[in-house]
């Protein structure tokens, strides 16, 4: 319904209340909101937005809408937990709007999949320090137990029954524990067409260069949306990261934040564990690694520390 759509839209852009300043320019890597999609949304606003909404909000320009997306992307790329937390409410409101705009729904699906990390950062940023493991040999991933509690009663995505056998078979064929295929839930909520503003796409949110490195086409067709082929590429990438860093939590951190960043932090801290460098990683990665570990444990019944080590 137009009124419901407009209500979502008016909530989605709190930065654009009358009298507030314009956000900083968006990075050039953020894709352009299609003009025809923007024009259609603007027409809905002009024709159906309630007067009280128009009094308090102005319709953002295409550039300003992109800037809102860019700020969230920047917080995910390099921000602290505080940076993530400040965008949690805006992202929750923006995601359904993007999902409703023709040509931009894939970005809405991507943003929807990131709400967990943003919401968790908001909940945890003022919380006490992560609970220590109950004894020294326990699995030491900061915020892991908090994520297990957070996700314990969440059902798997509807697509899991159809997709997971294929994804796990691909991981198994590449010598990677099949349980780790559940990282696709953290990456995309098992939506094969999810796309990030930074250009990552598919179930495993592969960037173009990573996909091509492992033999996938990224243009006509874009094989990152193919469940089996994307799983093969993700498993190969994860296997190489596991070999390099010697643990699955560190491999997951490198998958999310980049191997160069993780390697530099390990060297700077003279460390060899995720826990030792977690506080220096971007807020998204600090949330991502325990989230994936919790999903693996809850969905497969096997803790990541009990999986076959990288080989």
Describe the structure.
By secondary structure, the chain is an all-alpha fold. It has 16 helices and no strands. It has helices at 2-12, 35-48, 51-56, 62-78, 81-86, 88-100, 105-124, 144-151, 160-173, 183-188, 208-213, 227-245, 248-257, 259-269, 274-277, 283-300. Helix 9 (160-173) packs across helix 12 (227-245). The termini are far apart.
Task: Briefly summarize what is shown.
This protein is mostly helical and 311 residues long. It has helices at 2-12, 35-48, 51-56, 62-78, 81-86, 88-100, 105-124, 144-151, 160-173, 183-188, 208-213, 227-245, 248-257, 259-269, 274-277, 283-300.
Summary tags:
311 residues, mainly alpha, 16 helices, 59% helix
How far apart the termini lie comes to 54 Å
SS field, number of helical segments: 16
Shape: globular
What class, by secondary structure content? mainly alpha
Helix content: 55-70%
Mean pLDDT: 81
- Classify the beta-strand content into a percent band: under 5%
What's the order of the H and E elements? HHHHHHHHHHHHHHHH
Radius of gyration, whole Å: 20 Å
Total strands: 0
Major sheet characteristics: none
Low-confidence runs (pLDDT<50, min 5 residues)? 1-29
């Amino acid at each position: 319904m137009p009124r419901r759509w407009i209500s979502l839209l008016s909530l989605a852009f709190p930065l654009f209340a009358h009298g507030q300043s314009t956000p900083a320019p968006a990075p050039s890597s953020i894709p352009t909101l299609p003009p025809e999609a923007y024009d259609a949304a603007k027409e809905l606003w002009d024709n159906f937005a309630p007067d009280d909404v128009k009094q308090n909000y102005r319709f953002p320009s295409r550039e300003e809408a992109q800037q809102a997306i860019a700020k969230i992307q920047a917080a995910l790329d390099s921000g602290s937990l505080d940076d993530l937390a400040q965008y949690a409410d805006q992202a929750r409101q923006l995601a359904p709007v993007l999902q409703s705009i023709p040509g931009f729904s894939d970005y809405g699906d991507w943003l929807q999949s990131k709400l967990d990390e943003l919401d968790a950062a908001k909940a945890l940023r003022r919380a006490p320090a992560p609970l220590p493991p109950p004894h020294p040999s326990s699995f030491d991933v900061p915020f892991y137990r908090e994520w297990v509690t957070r996700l314990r009663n969440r059902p798997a995505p509807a697509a899991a029954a159809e997709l997971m056998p294929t994804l796990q078979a691909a991981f198994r064929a590449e010598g990677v524990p099949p349980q780790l295929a559940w990282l696709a839930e953290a990456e995309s909520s098992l939506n094969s067409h999810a796309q990030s503003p930074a250009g990552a796409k598919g179930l495993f949110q592969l960037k173009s260069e990573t996909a091509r490195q492992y033999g996938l086409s990224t243009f006509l067709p874009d094989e990152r949306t193919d469940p089996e082929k994307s799983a093969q590429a993700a498993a190969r990438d994860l296997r190489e990261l596991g070999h390099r860093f010697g643990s699955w939590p560190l491999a997951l951190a490198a998958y999310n934040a980049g191997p160069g960043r993780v390697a530099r932090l390990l060297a700077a801290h003279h460390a060899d564990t995720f826990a030792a460098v977690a506080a220096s990683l971007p807020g998204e990665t600090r949330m991502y690694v325990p989230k994936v570990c919790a999903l693996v444990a809850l969905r497969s019944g096997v803790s990541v520390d009990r999986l076959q080590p990288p080989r």
